[in-house]
Amino acid sequence: MNPHNVVNLLIDTVKVNLDVHLPSRVTSQEREVAQYLFETLKSFENATKFNYQEETTLDLHMSDYISSDEDTNTTDDNGVDEWTNEEGEKITHHLNQYSLEYMKAVVDFADEKDDYGKRRHTWKSIHHRFKSLPSQTYVSLFRSYLQKHGTKQQKCRSIDKVIYDKFVNAREQALPIHDLDLQRWALKTAKEVKLNDFHASHGWLINFKRRHGIVSRRITNMVTRHDIENSHVVQKSKQDFLVQYYRLLSDYNPSEIINTDQSGVEKEVHSSRTLSAIGMKKIYGIVSSKNASTHSYTIQPSISLDGKVVGPVLLCLQEVNGRMGETVKKKLFKPSNVVITCSSSGKLTSSLVAYWRDKCLIPSIGKKCLLLSDSWAGQKDEKLYDKKNCNGKEVFRLEIPKRTTSELQPLDCFYNRQIKNFIKKIYNRVALDQIPIHLYERNNIIKLVSLMHDQLSAPVFQLMVKYSWFSAGLLKQNPAPFSTVNEICFPSIVSHEQCELQACVESVFITCAHCSKKLCFQHFFISYHYHG
Ligand SMILES: [Zn+2]
Ligand SMILES: [Zn+2]
Predict the structure, then answer these.
(1) Do 238 and 178 fall into the same domain?
(2) Is the bond preceding 3 in cis, omega lying within 30 degrees of 0?
């Protein structure tokens, strides 16, 4: 890539799309921005590929920060429309001219008791002390007002504090947060403190964000790659592969053409993402796990040219010495769509390839198949695919050449990203809501992989799977339009919808790709919403 071309194009784009201002003196800020942009551009020198991600998150706008003390009162003023005052509205209105402190002082004074438990003060002495009190009835009016509204105010304050703490905590972990997250938390906290009629309305949200100086921030992340992918040799092997593939294509049904690949799921996928905005220093996330080494595992899914997810997914867990103890095995969660194995690294070994063949591939195919897999040494051995080792079935393996997988492997081109999106959603939700489960625990990893595989196997994703083949150049016809995992399972909901199960009051986490039910995290993940 030539940065000069990028700059020239950028100049043209700015001229056309932004109102051209007259030349002005260059400010030091502008110089700084230019320097940062240059650093980014420099990284494109000699890059052959790049990946652009854009995400918005709420974040603290430090310079506009307003201390929370002085404006807690705005909660109450603006919070009035949050709940309806039915009966006591008139009287409330009238009582508003008295401050809470004043009312509290009156009630405390009136309720003072002597050693025998008798009231110390008569109305006369109360009135003497608080001259502006119109009549004796105001003492009890104040008392009930304080009981109702005083606690309401306290509850509001505590909601505010809980949400703000959660927000700060999430940002410290570099988790992206959206309006809906704040509203979901607020609703949940309101329920916990029994503040009924609280709706976490749009108005509440605006106030909350203003009070705490929270703004929306766009995060762009550009990753450049400098592999020498376009070398002559690579181009040649790519061409050869495509010729061979298209020659073989007519001998097979689309359902018999299968791509399989291993994919390591590292902790980086979930909570520790590198976020960098143009003009900002890189921010690194924090991994909040006690035992990071147990985080990594390998999954191996397979997809076919007709848009199906083939057979169970192989899951290779990381276990000390590559072995699972008997007690562990007994307590192991064993879903029917996951074949579980382990190794000391959490990566596959060549002996595990035979295991994958016997448990995942062979039972899921007909008489024959064309298997596309990459050049990893562990799966190269031709004996692995001998008819006699394949239960009499004909497996023809076509190797995707070295350094071409990002372009030629269907799983790499699209499907694996869908998997990662799904897993990321689960991790983000657990981290954001501080759900008390540990996703690095064996049985939770298994459950997560099972649910992910189950959701992605839904017929609604058939076109998405086909698209993976299309974008790898292995399917001629573009199956678009199709729906992605985020669109089907995690559409951004406008209203605060509730989980559809039983009388559940939790907010929606996922829309099931199989049955379209909208489920909360508890009912999807913890209760294991599985179709099979
Ligand atoms: Zn379902
Ligand atoms: Zn629920």
Answers:
(1) no
(2) no
The three-state secondary structure class of 413 is: helix
Q: Is 204 exposed, middle or buried (0-12, 13-18, 19+ CB in 10 A)?
A: buried
- Please give the backbone phi and psi of residue 297, each rounded to the nearest 5 degrees, phi first: -150, 170
User: Cβ-count burial of 271 within 10 angstroms (0-12 exposed, 13-18 middle, 19+ buried)?
Assistant: buried
Q: Whole-angstrom Cα distance, residue 174 to residue 219?
A: 11
**The CATH number of the domain where 407 resides is what?**
3.30.420
pLDDT tens by residue, 228-278: 556 788 889 999 999 999 999 999 999 999 999 998 887 543 433 333 223
CB-based contact 289:333 (threshold 8 Å) = no
Same domain, 146 and 32: no
Q: Tell how far the Cα of 424 is from the centroid of ligand 1, in angstroms.
A: 20
39, two tokens:
């650093």
Whether the per-residue pLDDT at 168 is higher than 70: the answer is yes
Task: Give the residue-averaged pLDDT of 67-78.
Answer: 39
User: What is the domain extent for residue 9?
Assistant: 3-45
Give residues whose Cβ lies within 5 Å of ion ligand 2.
499, 501, 504, 506, 520, 523
- Quick one: which ligand is closest to 499's CA? 2
CA 494/CA 482 separation, integer angstroms: 22
pTM: 0.71
Q: Let me know whether 406 and 258 are in one domain.
A: yes
Q: Is the pLDDT of residue 291 over 60?
A: no
- From the number of C-beta atoms within 10 Å of its C-beta (0-12, 13-18, 19+), residue 169 rates as middle
Number of domains in the chain: 3
Q: Give me the mean pLDDT over the 48-63 stretch.
A: 72
